[in-house]
Amino acid sequence: MQQRRHTLLAIGAATLAALGAIAPVAHAEEKPKVALVMKSLANEFFRTMEDGAKAHNKEHKNYVLVSNGIKNETDTAAQIKMVEQMVAQKAQAIVIAPADSKALVPVLKNAVDKGVIVVNIDNRLDPEALKEKNLNIPFVGPDNRLGAKLVGERLAKELKAGDKVGIIEGVSTTTNAQQRTAGFKDAMDAAKMSVVGVQSGNWEIANGNTVAAGMMRENPDLKALLAGNDSMALGAVAAVRAAGKTGKVLVVGYDNIQAIKPMLKDGRVLATADQFAAKQAAFGIDVALKAIKDKTPQAQLPVEVKTDVVLVTK
């Protein structure tokens, strides 16, 4: 009996030793965890982005995807906490559409310092804020200024020089809001339109509605509203209808979400831009996975990877 117990112990020890020998190999083959951190999931654009990421993950199966987004577009503090949680949960990469172009930089710097690969999508992080932290985070996304200019140029064809227009901007501290406003202004200035004001609608339907209504009250002869995203364009369309000015005040947007398509069809919205939400996250994830596979340091990642943006009309 004693001898049998010694034999079993010997077998157990040998088994544990063997497991110990293969454990590091198993660990090395674990799938990397990639965190997708988005802006407001109340915005259809980001739900589409998440769907695209999940489809990419299902197709490739070579990584674990964790996706999350904030409740509203301005909840920067919640997004900072999400990044901290992903670092604590040992994500190897974070692909982020930042709610604020400057405020997220310090927490992302901390993530990079801890060995996490960080990739920026949708809304570009502020170059000066990155430079201050000596930080390179690649931006994978479209030229927002160009996209907005295309939309503005289409609108200009329906107007005449001197017509009054208003711009409903996204969250003013975000680079993509600033770039879209700049693109709208490029087109309006070239066509000699009169931009009566730029006001933030915080990317949201209700705020877009309020801003649009106020602009029409202050400028009874307003001819068009240029909204920095389609959610605000939805709010603007409702405001135009409530003011009895459907067909008299033109509306354009940006993003080409599903909810805007019936409005493009019947003319309530003249044009929008498609920057392919479903593909944006996938492109960012691909950059992150390649960096992990090739063991490329954050500092050596490309500064920018351009993606497409196209004009969409009826």
Measured between the Cα atoms of the first and last residue, the distance is: 86 Å
Strand order of the largest sheet: 2-1-3-4-5-11
Q: Which range does the strand content fall in?
A: 15-25%
> Helix- and strand-based class?
alpha/beta
- SSE order, one letter for each helix or strand: HEHEHEHEHEHEHEHEHEHEHEE
Number of helices: 11
Shape: elongated
Q: What helical percentage do the residues reach? A: 40-55%
Mean pLDDT over all positions? 91
* Low-pLDDT runs: 1-28
Count of β-strands: 12
Radius of gyration, taken over Cα atoms and rounded to an integer in Å? 24 Å
For the biggest sheet, the summary is:
6 strands, parallel
Q: What can you tell me about this protein's structure?
A:
- The protein is of the alpha/beta class and 314 residues long.
- 48% of the residues lie in helices and 18% in strands.
- The protein contains eleven helices and twelve strands.
- Helix 2 crosses helix 11.
- The protein starts with a helix and ends with a strand.
List the topology elements.
Blueprint: H1 2-28, E1 33-38, H2 44-60, E2 64-69, H3 76-88, E3 93-96, H4 105-113, E4 117-121, H5 127-132, E5 139-141, H6 144-156, E6 164-169, H7 175-190, E7 194-200, H8 205-218, E8 224-227, H9 230-242, E9 250-252, H10 261-266, E10 271-274, H11 277-294, E11 304-306, E12 310-313
Parallel strand pairs: 1-2, 1-3, 3-4, 4-5, 5-11, 6-7, 6-8, 8-9
Antiparallel strand pairs: 10-12
